[in-house]
Design goal:
The chain is of the alpha/beta class. The chain is 41% helix and 11% strand. It has a six-stranded parallel sheet.
Length: 314
């Protein structure tokens, strides 16, 4: 197999965060552009700390994850009524992992001394409530954990993967994952934020690989998908060398976020060829979600995902 080709039916993962679209519109766009290539339909909302803000403010009912999940499940059900979908396709619920939770607080909020632990405990209760309140979650829902790597790297300013901050974060993420039943797939997204807010350096990529290994070691429950973002500019294959140390389990699928709108299919194919020197098979994605994109370009960006997958298979 040539270096610039991946197996047939190349999977595509969407991190989510679609601006100014309803859930039904998002899913219709995804189905039209990506069809059966899509691994999971994304969360229908922008996940940028609103859950945490609502929790800090004491708006317990408004912040219920079951309320959020129902939006994605309803959009998926509406799509099923309109078109034939592949068996087993699922909608997503995205959860922002606890890290420096107090940064989302407003002056009037009462912040607990250990807000991260309190929020993690609330999340574990909430994911159990999702299963209880929404019976269809066992067959129709996937959960994506957004691990805030950029925030972690900025807080540690050094050996990110082996820091005390990383230990606490990984413990929280592991607890949330273990609270989910095996019937619900779990994806983990190394969140490096969209746009120019965080520049991924080679050491960051190595740290994301190491964090992934440490998380996989901690989790008894399976992780179905691991998303690691890739910057626009990658000089050579040495950038992807850390992937050779990635200790994935057979049931875990690697997904590399190497599709960028600015350099299209050609740029993505160049990064794919380089990445395959470190890890031969992976699903495709963008670096992050779509929150900072103009709504007018969303359809073109989705089509770019499909075009890159087609180029891999041709």
């Amino acid at each position: 197999m040539a270096l610039d080709r991946l197996p047939l039916a190349t999977g595509i993962h969407l991190v989510g965060d679609f601006p100014l679209h309803s859930g039904c519109e998002i899913y219709q766009l995804c189905q039209a552009e990506l069809g059966p290539r899509l691994l999971y339909y994304p969360d229908t909302r922008i996940v940028d700390g609103d859950d945490i803000r609502a929790w800090l403010a004491g708006a317990d009912g408004a912040a219920r994850l079951s309320h959020r999940a129902r939006g994605s499940l309803d959009a998926l059900e509406a799509l099923k009524e309109a078109v034939a979908l592949p068996a087993g396709i699922r909608a997503s619920l995205s959860i922002l992992a606890p890290f420096k939770t107090s940064r989302f607080a407003k002056p009037e909020d009462r912040v607990e001394p250990d807000a991260d632990s309190a929020y993690a405990a609330w999340l574990m209760d909430e994911v159990k409530r999702v299963v209880t309140d929404l019976p269809s979650s066992s067959t129709d829902l996937a959960v994506q954990i957004k691990l805030p790597f950029a925030d972690l790297a900025e807080a540690t300013q050094g050996d990110t993967a082996d820091s005390a901050f990383a230990d606490v974060l990984l413990d929280s993420v592991t607890s949330i994952i273990e609270a989910l039943p095996e019937s619900i797939p779990v994806a983990v997204h190394m969140n490096c934020r969209d746009g120019a807010g965080f520049k991924i350096q080679p050491n960051d990529f190595a740290d994301m690989t190491e964090l992934s290994n440490r998380l996989l070691e901690r989790c008894v429950r399976r992780i179905d998908l691991l998303h690691i973002p890739v910057p626009l500019v990658v000089s050579d294959e040495s950038f992807f060398a850390p992937l050779r140390r990635l200790a994935l389990r057979p049931e875990t699928r690697l997904c590399l976020g190497l599709i960028h709108l600015s350099d299209g299919v050609e740029g993505a194919m160049r990064r794919i060829a380089l990445a395959r020197t470190g890890f031969p098979e992976f699903a495709l994605a963008a670096r992050s979600g779509f929150a900072t994109r103009e709504p007018a370009v969303i359809a073109d960006f989705l089509k770019l995902h499909a075009d890159v997958a087609s180029a891999c298979e041709s």
